[in-house]
């Protein structure tokens, strides 16, 4: 029994590790996966699990970018330390909109929009937007190619785009990357800023879910949660490296087409069930 549950948790960790960082909606995939793989756990634990498993994913960002995000590194000059602190200030500015509105409306939005119809629609709409915007930007030169060039106003505007990710199926990375590209950043800066914004957002969301659930875990629940987090961490490292390598020579249109196909599959699958 425990072995089977750990296998399920590991598979869910793989899905989380891939879909959290690629702009293809982790929620959309989780809704499909839940149809076939369900942990032998309470609804309250499952709600907490799908959020807290993200801690494993976010630790991958912390590991990969520890030096870049560490303002106290002895290997950095005074100017580099100052620039690192500015990155954090811009992350804080970008987090404000989603943090404020998320605290107010997250539960309400999940209650009313966490369904396959909403997820399918947002998958398709944002898939189309990725294709349209990348086609529009084909012959444009990015205005922001470094974090020094990223203004606080642009950071805040990207944070407003992140608010859209409160609607299931939108994808947090998808909305922030799309918003950043619209605001004139390079794909590389768009992806990295999306990663950095996720650190306070996902730590905060996980902390809230843990407090809400409580800390009275059974031995099996601890094993399942840790397995999911560890697998999500390992897969996230690979997914982030893949994405950064991919966008050096490619745009995001492939992810747009993938979202459209997945949205159609989600609709088709649930219609056949009905």
Q: Give the strand content.
A: under 5%
Main sheet overview = none
Share of residues in helices: over 70%
- SSE pattern: HHHHHHHHHHHH
Give the structural class: mainly alpha
**pLDDT average, as an integer?**
92
Query: What is the terminal separation in angstroms?
Result: 31 Å
Counting DSSP H or I runs of 4 or more residues, the number of helices is 12
Overall shape: it is globular
When the domains are counted, the total is 1
Poorly predicted ranges (pLDDT <50, ≥5 residues)? Answer: none
Write the layout of secondary structure elements.
Blueprint: H1 2-19, H2 26-36, H3 43-52, H4 54-64, H5 66-69, H6 78-113, H7 116-136, H8 152-163, H9 172-182, H10 187-213, H11 219-246, H12 253-273
Helix pairs in contact: 1-2, 1-11, 3-10, 4-10, 4-11, 6-8, 6-10, 7-9, 7-12, 8-9, 9-10
Question: Mind explaining what this structure looks like?
Answer:
There is one protein chain. The radius of gyration is 19 Å and the shape is globular. The chain has one domain. The model has no long low-confidence stretch (mean pLDDT 92). The chain is built from twelve helices and no strands. It has helices at 2-19, 26-36, 43-52, 54-64, 66-69, 78-113, 116-136, 152-163, 172-182, 187-213, 219-246, 253-273. It starts with a helix and ends with a helix. The protein has 274 residues and is mostly helical. The longest helix has 36 residues, at 78-113.
């Amino acid at each position: 029994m425990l072995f089977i549950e750990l296998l399920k948790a590991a598979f869910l960790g793989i899905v989380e590790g891939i879909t959290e960082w690629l702009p293809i909606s982790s929620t959309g995939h989780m809704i499909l996966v839940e149809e076939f793989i369900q942990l032998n756990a309470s609804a309250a634990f499952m709600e907490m699990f799908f959020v807290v498993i993200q801690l494993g994913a976010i630790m991958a960002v912390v590991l990969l970018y520890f030096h870049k995000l560490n303002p106290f590194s002895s290997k950095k000059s005074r100017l580099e330390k100052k620039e690192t602190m500015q990155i954090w200030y811009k992350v804080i500015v970008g987090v404000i909109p989603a943090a404020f509105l998320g605290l107010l409306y997250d539960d309400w939005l999940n209650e009313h929009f966490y369904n396959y119809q909403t997820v399918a629609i947002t998958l398709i709409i944002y898939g189309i937007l990725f294709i349209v915007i990348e086609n529009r930007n084909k012959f444009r030169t990015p205005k922001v190619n470094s974090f020094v060039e990223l203004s606080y106003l642009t950071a805040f505007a990207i944070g407003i785009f992140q608010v859209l990710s409160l609607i299931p199926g939108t994808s947090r990375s998808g909305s922030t990357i799309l918003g950043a590209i619209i605001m004139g950043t390079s794909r590389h800066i768009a992806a990295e800023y999306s990663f950095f914004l996720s650190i306070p957002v996902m730590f905060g969301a996980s902390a809230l879910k843990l407090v809400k659930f409580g800390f009275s875990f059974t031995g099996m629940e601890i094993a399942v949660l840790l397995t999911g987090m560890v697998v999500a961490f390992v897969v996230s490292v690979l997914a982030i490296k893949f994405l950064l390598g991919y966008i050096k020579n490619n745009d995001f249109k492939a992810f747009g087409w993938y979202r459209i196909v997945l949205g159609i599959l989600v609709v088709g699958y649930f219609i056949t069930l009905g």
